[in-house]
Amino acid sequence: MVGLVQQEWSERLSAIRLDIRKIVEGIRTGLHRSFRRGASAVFVDHRDYTPGDDPRLIDWRASARKEGLVIKRLEQESELELHLWLDASASMAFGEGAQEKARFAATLLAVFATLAQSQGDAVALTRFDEGVLEELPPRSSLSHLRLIEENLAKPPARGARTRLSVLGSKVNTSKRTTKRRGLIILASDLLDLDPHALDGLKAWTKGGFEFWVFQILHREEIELPGNGPFRFEGLEGEPPVEADPAEIRSAYQRELQAHLERQRNQLVEMGAFLRLVCTDENIVDIVLQHLFFVKGALARFGGHRRWA
Amino acid sequence: MGIASPLALLAALLIALPIAAHILRRRDLPSRILPTVAFLERAITHKRRRIRLVDILILILRMGVVILAAIGMAEPFMVGASRYGEEALALAIVIDDSASMAQLIDFSQKRSALDEAVARAIKIIESLPQGSEIAIVAAGAPPRLILPRTKDIKLGKGALLSIQPGARRNAIGAAIKMAERQLGGASLSERRILLLSDQSSDESIPTPSFPVELEKVIGSGYSPNIGIVETQLVSPDSPNSPWLMTLDVRGSGFSSQVKASLRILSEDLPSHPTILEKEFTLLDGSSSLHLSFHPPKGIRKIAINIETPEDRLPMDNRRVLPLEASPQLSVLFVEGSTRRSARFAIRALEAASGSAHTFLPLLVDADRLPSFLADYRSRENSFPQVIVVSGFFAPSPESISVLEQALEEGSGLLVAPEASASRDAVEAWARWLPARPVALLPAPSHPSLTLEPTSHLFFRSGPTGLEGIRISSYFELVPLSDSALIPLRIDGDHPFLVFDPSSRRAVLSVGLDDRLSDFPIQPGFLPLLVNLVLKLAPPEVLPAHPISSGDLITLPLPATVKNVEIQTPSGLVFERNPGPSGLDLSDLAEPGIYELRFADSKKKRIGRLVVVPPPEEIDLSPRLSLPRSAPTTSKASNQSTTSLPLSPLFFFLSGLFAIAEGWLRLRDAFPLFQKMLRRRPHAKSITSKVLG
Question: Is the entire prediction scored with pTM above 0.90?
């Protein structure tokens, strides 16, 4: 195993559970509230029995008062279906060691996967760049978690561009595997300058998925340090640019900031949560801060209010 | 504007470096990976024009840094801009060329203080604004006008280079007065005097009329020096007896006792064999040596050399003396009254003996004059060289006879009246005098003595020492001879002294005692009397003791002598024509023995004269100061030139360019710059904002 998640993180992560603000739709019984009515203690209503229903759900007393069999509908505690989307484009191969954007994103997603698997939730993975590279269905087994980690650890492809629109088209191609609602966590640098790149993601949020976006950037990308002229080269086939960081820094940061704000506005508009993280930050801190934040939001808004 | 180190301008070729860097940096840039390069491209699109301008500006600044630094290294200077401004002025340069200015300030290059002063003066006149006038005066005695006031300042350099060190006293005060006279007729309103001196003078400088700038030409610190003050040589009584010599040596500027060596050399022989060698120690800065030696046969000149380490002034370490008996100048005072009126004059000559002349004062009462002169004539084979009569007495026929004989044989005569003289006695003396005493008149309440042009025969320029004289009454003198000179007058009208240089006879309007005036107790009494006696002495009488340039030495000569051949110590021979009062020798500055050759009606004569550096010039410590009441005086300065160095300015500008270049390059890198310029939010704030 690649060992993305370190053992010492487990103790800190055990203090909190992966929770979401929306009601999930899972198959198996889990920790999360579900639209499915099932074997919980919370009664909802009755309906007529149809062949194939679990006979254990027949409310015999109610059936006696009625002409036919009725089934007692109970609120069911369902498992979470966690979809991990990893940007494997070439731009994610920037940085050294643990601060490489791709490794940082993979580790971040691995932490969430580990957390979900420990709660018995199913975890799915999609790696993409200009198209979908790998797609693992949601499973909650430990062996599946290992498989997910192995795929997370794969290096980004050289020269492959970031194309976020592929995630929107994935609604149709992956309809079978993603027909249930759940949580989508996207780890990407979002370096897709197409202004409509995020439009396709609306389908996911409208479909009832909780959508968390972690925008991964290296600090050099934000601050553009250095002095003296350089020939800057991109990783996704962009033409090289000669510039002196000292001279161009302000203008560059204005452009970057405008791009980030535009994406933030789009994501917030569609009900997603965006957090920009720098690769020199502590991953566990990021996860804990985020989960505590979600838990606080659930407590305040009952899990049915929009974030924005 | 000039450049001291033109070769340093080659450093300007380094300008190729920033140009090459500017060209090459676009070709061979280090490569950097940046995933967000697309935003960089967008930013550059907006800033490209501005960046290009900034690039050119940076290139210009870098080139400026190199060029300005190269110019700075070339040591440019602006001549004269800071010292006398841009407006033309009349500048009198007074250069001290007294003996002390021969002190060495650079042993290795044998560079003297006078060399330094001349070099500075040349730079100063080269830096003067257009239209300026210069005059150059040498301040060693006697003060000399080297270059009269002229607008042709190019003449100044040649005039300055003609100044040579000599055995001169200081005459800075008189030189400044001479410079003032030169500036007096200048058409320019801005007039200044620049005095270049080592300041080793005790002279009291009168308050100048124009601003005087005093510039010291030697460095700080003591200037050790040892010099010969006086020598007394006694000839042997018999051929086998030794010569005796007393040598006074003085040192100054030494921190402790000084050991020195003495050598007496034979100056006549080419090999200069050593006659005597001796080591001695200067205690308390001076030493008196008593020596005896046997010079080789036929030697007529010896040289005395003293040496000690660190000695700055070699000129006063050597003295050349003739080995011959010193003649004395005999002066006979005839006491014409019972009041002992000649005693002041006798004391004055005794005091003056031993410096430049040896006087042998003799005194006789008027009634014993015939027998005294007859005895003196028979004993010395001549009459006293000068006869001074104090008080008109009625001469007896014998006195008249013997006086006529003495005057005929060349004796000089000075007569000073006395109040109680009878009219007949006065008339009796009038036959020998250049002026007739007419009557005793009461003096004005506050009389003053007026100097006539011929007064320079008796007085140095400057105060005469007779300014405060008080006269109760005086004899009205009527000149009888056309050749009679009247150097001094009472209130500009009545003769105070009448002197005939051709007959060498003189008469005063007051007595030699203090009855008619306080003349004998005035400071100017002694120099006037000494010079008067010297003028009255027969022509062949030369000073027996060494003299210095500036001493009032005039050799009285018969009218038949038209020129005198003078051979200098270095062997040069020149001729000089005697003036009405005799041959002026006060400007002989080369130390050593001078030979004077002339022929009168009877025979050829040869005289010798020794010129030595004046003893007061041995002390090299700077002590001269200008009077506080001078219009403006600058403090002593070690500035060697008048040029204003521009290197600091160019280095400063180069630094400014470098700062500007750095600011242009780094202003986006440091938030402080942006904050100062109220620019948009800086990088940190953007990062913080984006990261939440």
Answer: no
